[in-house]
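Quick review question:
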């Protein structure tokens, strides 16, 4: 199980990420594009995810993943129950969501740094 503090720590370690509050919900973004958002009760995380893969992900693990709120169905978005995932899976989900919104150059720089001792992945806790 992961917590809101785990989400914050991992998201804020990703380059160019900023944190803000929108409609009483904590969200992480690159520029104006949100790639992750906590539910108000901090039990679920919405994150960027390919629309065409949502149903398969939910069907494969229905106790873990769920569809976003109807207002968010038009976006590339999925929800996960924080109690159902561990820190490694959280890191993967957030990093993949972040990749959807950053430039290829930024993602490549992150990957290059992650492959070095002390880079973002090996240095994360």
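Suggested answer, residue by residue:
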């Amino acid at each position: 199980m992961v917590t809101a503090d785990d989400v914050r720590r991992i998201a804020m370690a990703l380059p160019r990420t900023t944190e803000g509050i929108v409609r009483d919900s904590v969200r992480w973004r690159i520029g104006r594009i949100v790639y992750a958002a906590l539910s108000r009760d901090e039990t679920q995380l919405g994150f960027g995810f390919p629309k065409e893969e949502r149903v398969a992900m939910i069907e494969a693990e229905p106790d873990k993943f769920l569809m976003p709120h109807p207002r968010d169905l038009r976006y590339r978005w999925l929800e996960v129950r924080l109690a159902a995932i561990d820190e490694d899976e959280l890191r993967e989900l957030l990093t993949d969501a972040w990749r959807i919104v950053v430039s290829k150059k930024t993602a490549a720089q992150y990957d290059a740094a992650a492959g070095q001792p002390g880079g973002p992945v090996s240095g994360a806790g």
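Why it works: DSSP finds five helices and six strands in the chain. Residues 4-106 form a domain with the Aspartate Aminotransferase, domain 1 fold (CATH 3.90.1150.30).
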